[in-house]
Amino acid sequence: xxxxxxxxxxxxxxxxxxxxxxxxxxxxxxxxxxxxxxxxxxxxxxxxxxxxxxxxxxxxxxxxxxxxxxxxxxxxxxxxxxxxxxxxxxxxxxxxxxxxxxxxxxxxxxxxxxxxxxxxxxxxxxxxxxxxxxxxxxxxxxxxxxxxxxxxxxxxxxxxxxxxxxxxxxxxxxxxxxxxxxxxxxxxxxxxxxxxxxxxxxxxxxxxxxxxxxxxxxxxxxxxxxxxxxxxxxxxxxxxxxxxxxxxxxxxxxxxxxxxxxxxxxxxxxxxxxxxxxxxxxxxxxxxxxxxxxxxxxxxxxxxxxxxxxxxxxxxxxxxxxxxxxxxxxxxxxxxxxxxxxxxxxxxxxxxxxxxxxxxxxxxxxxxxxxxxxxxxxxxxxxxxxxxxxxxxxxxxxxxxxxxxxxxxxxxxxxxxxxxxxxxxxxxxxxxxxxxxxxxxxxxxxxxxxxxxxxxxxxxxxxxxxxxxxxx
Length: 472
Hints:
This is Amino acid permease. It is a multi-pass membrane protein. The chain crosses the membrane at residues 35-57, 63-85, 106-133, 159-177, 189-208, 220-239, 260-284, 304-327, 356-375, 381-402, 414-432, 438-458. It holds the Pfam family AA_permease_2. This protein is mainly alpha-helical and 472 residues long. It has one domain (8-466): Amino acid/polyamine transporter I (Up-down Bundle). It is built from 17 helices and no strands. The longest helix has 35 residues, at 105-139. It is globular and about 75 Å long. The two termini are 15 Å apart. 51% of the residues are buried.
């Protein structure tokens, strides 16, 4: 087994597979169905219950249908690249692990550090959203939390801590501690209920569709459709967390591509179906509200269904938060197993093979951010981190196809020199259109990561230790 040296030392694929299958590996308990539910759980949340109405009202009008088609296709480009990697390298760490094999340790650390920020902020943003939605639901029953504990630290508004955000993070941490088999079953149940609620809206709402509401179909022109697609693209990006589960799948080479692509396909169908019915029920200018799906049902006097939709929204946000926390724990596990973070973080329980310290670290991070830090502008960092990972994976799949054509691939990206290019192009377009402040914060986090690597990671790297032993 040959190793390259210095900062661009690459982890051989057989070594990565050995890590995933050895004593340090996680419990293999998930199926293709569990992976599909994991992907749907990550994608179907605030996007379908909130973003559909906002994009229709502000950007695309009834042509939001086309926006979701275009953004779904763009996201599928990256999903195909993830599927090929997942079928070759069934190990935790997702894009971090893939880049370690293709580009080397320093680049892998940069991407892993970037994903820590992405998942950490995503957990916090979603937890804060869950809290806000629940409190709105509570008001309908005449209940209200004291202002001081209703939102993150903002003395000007009289808020100091978001208690409900800390509660949901604690509960989901407890679910993760129960083991991957038990926690995936709980996620499956919540996702099935959520899908049922979405389908209930589509079926009931279809009886109240007025074709006249689809006219004009493209009120903001094709430019509005493209703008809507750029916004809607961000509703799909949670699927990448599915690849974090590679090491815990019984038949990863077969099931990972199925889970990634089928979850994206189901989500795309649901987004389009909701968009068609929603814009047919209510004139699009009226959909710029915080709960457009429930609003549409109240608009046609179907308040009982609106109540179920509110339940579906709560479950939708819950599953998104669960998958984001799950992805964060497996990322911490993979990076620390490689020695780039303290090895203790990768310690597993003997019985359930659960990374306890990784889960506790994720719990602390999500709790502190969601409870005390207002995350309005910081939320864009979630998007830039995900888009960066998509670009790296899309380039990496081409590089590995050229350098290692001998590797067995149970799934191959079709049109290898076209689809990854389109993925890079679409993700790059979205990245350059993010705000300058987002880029500055991203670069600051990047610099902090470099310092940590050269102070700690470079010296404690497991791969580095193996290289030094072979040189003696």
